[in-house]
Amino acid sequence: MKEKNLASKKVKYKVSIGDRMISVLTYIIYSIFAFVCAYPFYYIFINTISNNDLSQRGKVIFWPKEVHFTNYAQVMKIEGLFQSLKVSVARTVIGTIFTVIIAAFLGYMFTRETMWHRKLWFRMVAATMYFNAGIIPWFITMKNLGLTNNFWVYIFPVAVQPFYIILCKTFVESVPKELQDAAEIDGAGTLRIFFSIIIPVIKPILATVAIFAAVAQWNSFQDTLLLVTDDKLYTLQYTLYQYINQASSLNALVKK
After folding, report:
1. Are 206 and 104 in contact (CB under 8 A)?
2. DSSP H/E element including 208
3. What's the whole-number mean pLDDT along residues 1-10?
4. How much of the chain exceeds pLDDT 70, in percent?
5. Considering only CA atoms, which of 162, 151, 147, 150 is closest in space to residue 212?
């Protein structure tokens, strides 16, 4: 009984001054790091709700001045804004799904010794990271494939990303081969092994690839600039890009 009572009592550890200093220093460093990461977003927000003249002169730094929401009201009046938002959301969701699945599957296949000439195909995919034909041949290829003024121009050309494939391949190689061997002995095929064993194990790298792909899709507007003339297919970034250019041109004319 005495032993149980002793075991049930919480053991108190004496924290040294050095440990406390390290903990305080750690909190300070991480707080500064969090502030540095969050401040740009806060800075943009306070400038959007502050007096425009003061914002242009760099007078708004930590606190908003002469708060107003006219800028947001003007943005909501942009023609085609919500249609562009739908296109951006659609391309981000669909494009990310395509990119993640293809990167995971090819990364897995390039680790399979039974794949025909897998090293050759992997080197050909990796080579595209260092060499490309340029904008004009790329544009001609997209036009010949019928992808101009087509929503799928946002999906197919970027579905295969060599960097993401290499990430997935490296992660799959860390998975014990005994899992795949056991599944093959039980009669599982390539697709069954991929979806039932590989996908659940490599979820961390899939989440990483998904974040990278989603951010790239959301921020992209050059493909719209070069390949799309139908305003119904404009992305949000391109619509805002046009609006900023028009505002800048009007501002320059007024100053003249």
Report:
1. yes
2. helix 203-219
3. 51
4. 91
5. 162
Q: Which residues of 25-40 are buried (b: 16+ CB within 10 A; e: fewer)?
A: eeeeeeeeeeeeeeee
Amino acid at 173: E
Q: What is the pLDDT of residue 112?
A: 86
State the burial class of residue 198 (Cβ atoms within 10 Å of its Cβ: 0-12, 13-18, 19+): buried
pLDDT of residue 10: 54
Please determine, looking at this structure, whether the domain spanning 78-255 carries the CATH number 1.10.3720.10: yes
User: Minimal CA–CA distance to 156: which of 144, 147, 167, 165?
Assistant: 147
For residue 100, report the phi and psi dihedrals to the nearest 5 degrees: -65, -45
Hey, where are the domains in the chain?
2-75, 78-255
The single residue listed with the structure tokens 């606190």 is: 63
pTM above 0.70, yes or no: yes
> CA–CA distance from 91 to each of 2, 84, 229, 232, 235 (Å)?
67, 11, 17, 13, 9
